[in-house]
Amino acid sequence: MILCSPSCGIAPGSASGGEAHERDLLLGLTAASDDPHILLAHGKPVPPELEKHIERTRPARGLRWPVMLGVMPHWIGRCVRAHWPDLIRAHSLRFTGLPALIAARRHGLPMVAHLHHLDPDPLNLLIERTVMRGADLVVADSEASKRQAVALGVPAERIRVVYCGVPDAYTPGRCPKAVWDRYGLGEPGAFVILSVGPMIPRKDPLGTIRVFARVLHQDQNRPRPTLLWIGDGPLRHDAQRLAESLGIADAVRLPGYVPEEDKLSLYRAARAYLTLSRLEGFPLGALEAMACGVPVVAYRVPPFTELVEEEVSG
Fold first, then answer.
1. In whole angstroms, what is the distance from residue 10 CA to residue 36 CA?
2. Suppose 281 and one of 22, 24, 113, 141 were both cysteines; which one would form an S-S bond, judging by CB atoms 3.0 to 4.6 Å apart?
3. Which residues, at least 6 apart from 245, have a Cβ–Cβ distance to it below 8 Å?
4. What is the pLDDT of the chain when averaged over all its residues?
């Protein structure tokens, strides 16, 4: 199968869950495709394993969706004329979805779109609905995402739910002492509460810190736990200031982006995984924690409820 896949970014060190998911998915797809072609703007970093599959586009970096809509159909067309792919794939409904749909219609090729979760912004919903209704197949991360698409008028028979997975390395294990020391977690075995994800309103890092403050203040007879949030974003400085104002800055660690090997070790260091997110396509961080044997604390909302099979996985 020859694949054409326009992409917004697949950086090896990305702190974005969506970009990390796309990167890992393409690593798997390139093993299954005879001739994959990944369209990526000049200047965007790529993992070494994918370099030979990259076809560079312009303008470089920072393609907002209106710009992407104007230029990406041209680059997809060049890929089609050069390789005549069997399939055009859009990993982002908003950024690459419309250009991929235009190119697929123009060249008479089938198109697959990926749905993680729908953005409540009215303009985004309009774009996402148009792309999903025009696609030949929509791959959704969860049944919750599928229900969102059906509510927008996408035929249920054109949607397939494919759950996310985790790398084989994500298993229970020990965290090296060097990692404990690097992130200021105290002695190995100390009680660490972990959160993972971009520090954006949807993930509610400020609410997480407030919850953690209540835990500290209500149970002062036990060893003082540490809250560790892996990820960067616009609320990181606000979260640090909030921790200081609540008098718990000494128990909160906000390192931002961490290397992948450290992230795995930090999952293994955690005693519990905490998320207050109420909107997810698929809660990959929670699944990664579960794979490492770490219990998850989350709201009883979809798709978190899809992670738990009674008396099997929770």
1. 15
2. 141
3. none
4. 89
Nearest to 190 by CA among 228, 217, 218: 228
Structure tokens at 25: 């998915």
Q: What dihedral do alpha carbons 20, 21, 23, 24 form, nearest 10°?
A: 110
Quote the CA–CA distance of 110 and 161 in Å, as a whole number.
Answer: 19
Return the amino acid letter for 230.
I
DSSP 309: -
For residue 213, what are its two tokens?
């403050």
What DSSP line would sit under 116-128, residue for residue?
Answer: S----SHHHHHHH
- Expressed in angstroms, the distance from the first to the final Cα of the chain is 39
Q: For residues 100 and 113, is the Cβ–Cβ distance under 8 A?
A: yes
pLDDT tens digits, residue range 271-280? 999 999 988 8
Q: Report the distance separating Cα 230 and Cα 209, nearest Å.
A: 13
Pairing of strands 159-161, 137-140: parallel
Cα 113 from Cα 125, distance rounded (Å): 15
> Which class for 119: exposed (0-12), middle (13-18), buried (19 or more C-beta within 10 A)?
middle
